[in-house]
Amino acid sequence: MLRKLRYMALGASIAYFFDPDNGRRRRARARERLPFGGSNLTLPEKPSFPAEVTTTADDATLARKVESELLRGAEVPKGQINVDAANGKVVLRGQVEKPELIADLEEMTRNVQGVREVENLLHTSGAAAPAK
């Protein structure tokens, strides 16, 4: 039982210090707190990849981030807007009630971190859906 707890603690500390988002900051703060300053401790840096390389998980995360940003407003019809993302390009599809809402949603999408390009295929309820 004690061995299992040790392994769980080790796994938790590894996850804490090597977290992709906050791990670098946490490791730096831990080195600062060491009595000898931690100046001779070096940890391998995260490898850098070209900006064009993204994974499907990144695209799904970006799409969910855009959806959560867009669907915050009360005037936005939930369930009528479809958000797809691929390599930083976000495609908005669906139907809205007001024509001015189309431009607002596109601008809100452009302001989300990680969005490189927006293709807006939104239309009002009386208009035909735009083609590519």
Shape: elongated
Number of helices in the DSSP assignment:
4
Could you say which structural class the secondary elements and strand pairing correspond to?
alpha+beta
Query: Radius of gyration in whole Å, from Cα?
Result: 22 Å
CATH class of the largest domain equals Alpha Beta
Q: Based on DSSP secondary structure assignment, what is the total number of beta strands?
A: 3
Helix and strand pattern: HHHEEHE
Overall helicity:
40-55%
Question: Strand order of the main beta sheet, please?
Answer: 1-2-3
* CATH fold annotation of the largest domain: Histidine-containing Protein, Chain: A
Structural key phrases:
3 strands; 4 helices; 2 domains; alpha+beta; 132 residues; 41% helix
Please give a structural write-up.
With 132 residues, the chain is an alpha+beta fold. The chain folds into two domains: 1-48; 56-124, Histidine-containing Protein, Chain: A (2-Layer Sandwich), CATH 3.30.1340.30. 41% of the residues lie in helices and 17% in strands. It is built from four helices and three strands, in the order αααββαβ. The chain has helices at 2-17, 23-33, 56-70, 99-110, and strands spanning 81-86, 89-96, 117-124. A three-stranded mixed beta sheet has the order 1-2-3. The mean pLDDT is 80.
